[in-house]
Amino acid sequence: MTRSISILGATGSVGASTLDLVRRNRDEWRVVALTANCSARELAALAREFDAEIAVVGDEACLRDLREALSGSEIEAAGGPSALCEAASRPVDLTVAAIVGCAGLRPTMTAIRRGGAIALANKEALVSAGDVMTAAVAQHGATLLPVDSEHNAIFQCLQGGRIEDVRAITLTASGGPLRTWTAEQLALATPAQAVAHPNWSMGAKISVDSATMMNKGLEFIEAHHLFPVGLEALRIIVHPQSVVHSMVEYRDGSTLAQLGPSDMRVPIASCLAYPARMDTPCAPLDLAALGSLTFEPLDEVRFPATRLAREAAHAGGASPAVLNAANEVAVAAFLAGQMAFTRIALVVEQTLERYTPMAPSSLDDVLGVDAEARSRARELLETMPIG
Ligand code: NAD
Ligand code: MG
């Protein structure tokens, strides 16, 4: 039986991995909407290849290119933030939410409000909206299938178990490409060094987040919303090989872990086929060749981001949205060569100290907090020395 799918963020790393799996099972899927921010030609080529119903660019300035690239086809072309939401509102069996950053929040919420299944990669949306998103999921009877490898691992380890029997959930962190660097070296890390992840190939923003370990901080908050075991039961451990993707410890002392290659097609496949399983082209684990798996504690002196995220999670309310927005601004500035690597966490910390809005209770509240936190973070950047 054919199922329908829309991919928000189709031209990105998660989008490409998803489409790779769809391509291998072409007759099982009908592609409805594919979206991108701007890469109009690339998006048009994908829309043609997958015979999509509609292709949408978030940046309206790219619509003309998209129209041109789609001319002669039956595929609808649209552009701008409201067009993204219109595309996300079209009925499908599965929406893959793979836009990066809070930019994906409104389209993801639109898909949630339609009910149905959402394979969620866009962690920033859940971190920012938190309870507003989980309440909408409950209200509209939507299902969130976690794409993030750690959360997908936890989700798998919880199948057949009861959440009230869980004693602890441990997120594994690779530690990123700069894991062994000294504080002095970290201050001089370049964008190229920060995005050179040893295990995973990902978009630039999440790669920098992995290097600062803010990625694990965001994932801590993400786990808090996806798996209601309480913040005290959530742990983080460094596991440089990225083979154990996370673990769930039950009250009887049993710990279940999910292991797999560091290839996003594995967790994405588990969402595409859920609750069944499907083939992937990923090389299976060869544990004998790996020889050993190692684990180490977090070093929050060199990598303060996980502490900031944990504190924001405990503070609750608007804090995670402020943390996320400041981080997005700081990461963009670092990638643009405007700021030292170690300033990223500093900008986040100072934005959190200076801006403490009321807890958001609606999507518009969340977006208001996000916008204000961004402008405060940008102001901070301007007053900060580069080094
Ligand atoms: P990416 O940068 O490779 O792709 C992002 C996609 O979003 C692209 O299609 C881009 O065109 C689109 N986009 C960017 N800004 C947009 C905007 N303002 N409006 C509309 N569309 C916009 O990112 P990625 O690595 O694929 O990550 C996507 C999401 O998945 C992120 O939230 C990331 O944290 C999460 N994630 C990624 C991986 C991974 O392996 N890449 C793993 C786990 C979670
Ligand atoms: Mg992850």
Would you write up a description of this structure?
With 387 residues, the protein is of the alpha/beta class. It folds into 3 domains: 3-146, NAD(P)-binding Rossmann-like Domain (Rossmann fold, 3-Layer(aba) Sandwich); 151-301, no CATH class; 317-387, RNA polymerase sigma factor, region 2, helix turn helix motif (Rna Polymerase Sigma Factor, Chain: A), CATH 1.10.1740.10. The chain contains 18 helices and 11 strands. The strands form 2 sheets. It has a 7-stranded parallel sheet, with helices on both faces. The chain has a 4-stranded mixed sheet with strand order 9-8-10-11, with helices on one face. Helix 1 (13-24) packs across helix 13 (265-273), helix 4 (81-88) runs parallel beside helix 5 and helix 11 crosses helix 16. The protein is globular. The termini are far apart. Nicotinamide-adenine-dinucleotide binds next to helix 1, helix 6 and helix 11. Nicotinamide-adenine-dinucleotide (NAD) is lined by residues 9-15, 36-37, 39, 58, 98-100, 103, 121-124, 148, 200, 202-203, 205-206, 264. Pfam families: DXP_redisom_C (PF08436), DXP_reductoisom (PF02670), DXPR_C (PF13288). Its EC number is 1.1.1.267.
Map the helices and strands:
Layout: E1 3-8, H1 13-24, E2 29-36, H2 40-49, E3 54-57, H3 63-70, E4 76-79, H4 81-88, E5 94-97, H5 105-113, E6 116-120, H6 123-129, H7 131-140, E7 142-146, H8 149-158, E8 166-173, H9 183-187, H10 191-195, H11 204-212, H12 214-226, E9 234-238, E10 244-250, E11 255-259, H13 265-273, H14 287-290, H15 305-315, H16 319-335, H17 343-354, H18 363-383
Parallel strand pairs: 1-2, 1-5, 2-3, 3-4, 5-6, 6-7, 8-9
Antiparallel strand pairs: 8-10, 10-11
Helix pairs in contact: 1-13, 2-3, 4-5, 6-12, 6-16, 11-16, 12-15, 16-17, 16-18, 17-18
The structure holds nicotinamide-adenine-dinucleotide and magnesium ion.
Family: Belongs to the DXR family.
Binding site for NADPH: 11-14, 122, 124, 203
Function: Catalyzes the NADPH-dependent rearrangement and reduction of 1-deoxy-D-xylulose-5-phosphate (DXP) to 2-C-methyl-D-erythritol 4-phosphate (MEP).
